[in-house]
Predict the 3D structure of the following.
Amino acid sequence: MTFSLPARSAAALALVYFLLALLSITLATRAGYVAFIWPPVAVLLGVLLRSTPARWPLFLGACFVADVAANLLLGGTLPATLGLAAGSLAEVLPGAWLLQRHFGRPFRLTTLPAALGFLLVACLTPLPGALLGATVLHAALGAPWLEALRIWWASTALAMIIVAPVLLTWTPAAGAVFRRRHAALEAAGLVLLLLATTTFVFTRPFTPLLFLLLPLLIWGALRFGPAGHSLTALLLTTAALAWTYAGHGPIAATGAAPALQAHLLQLFLTSIAAPSLLVAVIVTALRRSAVERERLIHTLESQKAELERFAYTISHELKTPLVTITGFAGLIRDDLARADTVRAEDDLSIIEQAARTMQQSLDHLLELTRLGRPIGAPRRVRLRDLVDDALATVAARIEQKGATILVADDLPTVRGDPQRLREVLTILLDNALKFTKPSEAPRIEIGARPANPHPVCFVKDNGTGIEPVYHERVFDLFERLEATHEGAGAGLALARRIVEAHGGRIWIESAGRGRGTTVCFSLPLESSGK
């Protein structure tokens, strides 16, 4: 028997939920009816926020069964356990729905509005489930209803604020930060200081010492962002609950009833974890904005330099045919004065050719301006389909040149505008067919090779080749290494703009004259979602 990935994920979630529920119930307050903290629902909330609603019924059902099983195993009655399990799930579903509805899915804890929405949901949506749970506890165990409601609600809110962010912020990119040597050493130092500080604070009966824990949360937030903050908050909460449960620390020293001790600790941990989470999100967003600003400044500076080169090139490229037209217009006037119609016809032909050259240059300029406005939304595209279309476009030239075309079978699926990407392949094929050697039959290979982060696609020919000193220059607008070849020299400039607009890059590989040319380009894969 085999199980699908969603079924295996639901089974793993149910196991984690069951084990956390057993631990939480076992470590319930000495009042005997409500846990200090209820992390199972926080884990469920994190999973729901990172998955699609289509899978929610499966996950909710699995956790409902796990909740009932944990309560039954620890001596609960079936009616009571069913009510308690229903109350737990009722705390999660409204919050998950609201967050995904207003902030998209999967929910990301990366912006201040998202963080504020998350904290609001964590504080308010547990209330309906807490009402149901407190009513069940009051009926089944005789627990004081208001006290059970207060502790139940706070235990869930605390769990959501402390545990759920671990699932929402830890990504491969976030984890990569801690693999850097200096960051790893600093994180280890933070953990050691956290353990030492909690030991110092909770072995003494002085309540003001509790606020020594706040700088550690701020440290994790400022230096490591939401992911670092979530881990710091989880470790701090675990240590605080363990010491208080064992009867040590400022809160235990108050001598208050166990239920009141639980509630005071819940309120304290929530009051320091929520603001520091906002600090982590705000600082990370500011850093991201600063990086983006620097990137934009660099882009603007590059575009300014390119615009200056562009203006010079345009003035030169358009001035040449204008000079030709002006000069030969005067010659035609002389031809007409001599009634030399044959010579006038020749001069008119030259003027027409100059006008066509100018029109071609203007067409390429117009094409360049359109690159900032995509024709269609990016979508999944099989590169092989685009190659077939491009080959059909240049089929006449392939036949004229007698070229051999080899296309690999393992071309990747990318994400982009099909029409624009088809233009890139057509330009590269057209160039490969244009710059051939008279002594050798043209041979063109189209393929892909693995690379990081995206595979590299290439169009390789056995043509005239390009000296390494010109590998970058050929991408400049109206750049022609050989004036004898037709075209305005804008093809590779267009190809570069299109590829870079898709988040990729394009470059030349050639050993020099007579050694052939390989034009390589990379594009985001379909699975990258870019």
In short: Confidence is low (pLDDT under 50) at residues 483-488. The first strand starts at residue 379 and ends at 382.
